[in-house]
Amino acid sequence: MARTREATSHEQRLSGVRRIAHHRRWTEGQPTRLRHHAVDGPRGKGGSRSTTGRLIPWNLFTDPELARVGLTEEQARATGRDIRVAKPPVKAIPRARTMRETRGLWKVVVDRDTEEILGVALLGPDSSEVLTVVQTAMWAGLPFTALRDGLIAHPTMAEGLNALFTSWVD
Asked: Which of 58, 83, 151, 152 has the greatest count of CB atoms below 10 A from its CB?
């Protein structure tokens, strides 16, 4: 009887290893497949696309995460625009305090005249997730006030966007 249980347990462990190995092969192929889809469109659909003029985000999954999209402060100033910069520390975000992950800084660059979000860099917990919210607002051409004044769920890291757009340093 013990031998049957042992064999069954061994088979279950092997089955789990096979599932993990299969999952790993599938996920390793995903970035290439997703990148291909995002830039070139679905396979077999033809056409060509370019990253020129598109908002291309990047995320570095360190601890804390680093995420950025759009122009840096230096790039925005080089365009000749009159800009505003906000730089609140992550410890100002209620959710960061509840998670006890308060290391980091968020920074946003906004056109002073049009209120257009030109770029954002986020260093802190869940930055890649929050970045997507800002990127979507940028795609839609929303002014920064839409995120500053929006009712965002509490407590979430995205709620920090309300504070981000009121933390001007200039």
From this structure: 83
Based on its alpha-carbon atoms, the radius of gyration of the chain, rounded to whole angstroms, reads 22
- Distance, CA of 28 to CA of 31 (rounded, Å): 7
Catalytic site includes residue 36: no
| Residue 152 neighbours by CB under 8 Å, 6+ apart | 158, 159, 161, 162
pLDDT tens digits, one per residue of 78-120: 999 999 999 999 999 999 999 999 999 999 999 999 999 999 9
Catalytic residue, chosen from 10, 22, 36, 154, is: 154
Query: Bridge partners of 67?
Result: 59, 122
**pTM (2 d.p.):** 0.73
